[in-house]
Amino acid sequence: MPPRSALITVMDRAARKAAPKLRRDFNEVDALQVSRKGPADFVSNADRAAERTIREVLTHARPDWGLLMEEEGATAGVDPDRRWIVDPLDGTTNFLHGIPHFGISIAAEERGEVVAGLIYQPLTDESFWAEKGQGAWLQDRRLRVSARRDLSDSLIATGVPFVGHGDAAQWEKVAHAVIPEVAGIRRFGAAALDLAWVAAGRYDGFWEAGLAPWDVAAGILLVREAGGFVSDFRGGERIVDRAEIVAGNDRIHNKLTRLIATALR
Fold first, then answer.
1. Which of 27, 85, 122, 196 is the S-S candidate for 19 at Cβ 3.0 to 4.6 Å?
2. pTM for the full predicted model
3. Separation CA 85–CA 107 (nearest Å)
4. What is the pLDDT of residues 93-108, one digit of tens each?
5. What is the spatial distance between Cα 175 and Cα 245, in angstroms, rounded to a whole number?
């Protein structure tokens, strides 16, 4: 394992400092004060508290950097070329329903390119991290994407549109093309962890539309550093602009992209 850089060390410290309160709140989920910021788009006190904690750690370590955070939005930094991209609680709906599948996602971006990323699961204490050119890791274990070559053997993750979010008609077209070709589909409700699991070889592929930068920034780097491929639905690099993503090893990524492109013609 390469030595952890200062960036990874700071991200890990921030996630681990925010995690204990998330664990405590998760165990008392019925008592959480919950507000709505849109249809089926819940934000709990836990989101806000985790984001404040993460922000404090990151800004103390890099006071000149900007931030892009799910709850607080964008904050410009003195340094215009560097910023943190943070989702303090990816999988909020799971969290609020007592489903133990959620995570913290933090990425470091320099001149428009993500150079380091970390996704932390507070309940399992799994820390997935990657740095450009240094590989992807789960704690101190090197990660590689799945070696499966055939869709018929592959387990594919996705997200499903819900009230007020996503294009159900588009999703149905893609799902109808993909489902008959694969061994199974999973929808666990936390895109950052989905991408981390692709990097770890637990999933063979992933697709979803409508995701925000904080949902995918760290996960894209993890998959690529684990030897995988990530693109938009057309096979290009406009993942954030188009809010669409396909990930997997070379074969599965290519096959998924072709299925999706054909379905959306």
1. 122
2. 0.94
3. 5
4. 899 888 999 999 999 9
5. 14
